[in-house]
Here is the input.
Amino acid sequence: MANPPVAATRVGVVGVFATLDGALLAVRELKAHGYANLQVYSPVPNHELEGVLAKKESPVRVYTLVGALIGTTLGFAYAISTSLDWELITGGKPIVSLPPYVVIGFETTILLGALVTVLGMFLNARLPKLGKTPGYDPRFSNDRFGIVACGGPAQLAAAEDILRAAGADEVNDV
Here is the structure.
């Protein structure tokens, strides 16, 4: 006995818009109806669209600060421990003298700050993306705007209606 075919499950809907105004209207309406996790594709950067989405600030700057502080600490620790292990006494000067170590501390600050920043960017962007992004269409890089809304069956039906009311050229399943 063969198993009956399983219906494809919808995880979201994608609306394709020709104009920015239609996309902005759709995003505002979806946000007003409680859709929080929207994915928006745009062929050009647009500050108004970013403002409507109200995404939180990137935490990459925290990665940079932590990397820089660790770099400073390691740079000074390396220079001081090297001086203590290989004592070079010249003219009765102290073995550990901080002013010459500022250069090493600065360089390791920049080095680790930059490396941890790049690592943080990759982590926050979830790179590399090995699979296809759900709902993406190559037209979104050319001349169309795309909005992907995810949710349950009832939410998807409502999202589909909102996208059509906002003037979507197409509304497809994801």
